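Figure 2 data, in text form.
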Amino acid sequence: MAVKEVLKKMELHFMVVDLGEVEIMETLSPEQLDQLKVELLASGFELMDDKRAVLIEKIIGVISEMIHYSNDIPKMNYSDYISEKLKHDYTYMSNIFSEVKGITIQQFIIAHKIEKVKELLFYDELNLTEIAYRLHYSSVAHLSNQFKKITGLSPTQFKQLKDKKRSPIEEIGNLTNKDINSSS
């Protein structure tokens, strides 16, 4: 709604393509583009006109939705799922993602899965076997090993902590390669 108001205020004709995406019918002058950036920023939004940045945000969105907001993680390979959802070649997306983010898509997925494991342990609704099954780990041992490599704690040790440390979703994936490489 706020973005629509900004576009109407600037008398721009637009079409909402997808959540977070708007197609503007006019070709913007550099001044209009600058004004649009300022207006959007004032409303708490950011204009992403770099196609690579837009693709990376879409990849992050698919991964977040898949792991954090869906009750059923797809049974197909993550690479196939992401390619199918975004209609891009996985190798192409993976190369851009790694170049810009400094980690692979797979490492990013692992970081998100571990954060989801923390959440599920925190709320104590599922046991470790159920969590491993839900997040498509091959075994509880695989989940436990990956969890320990990323967090330094076993899932059981994490569960026993009084102050369970969790990361905000938007900060997941900002780990260094060193933090994640050992878990691949």
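Caption note: Residues 84 and 144 are 30 Å apart (CA to CA).
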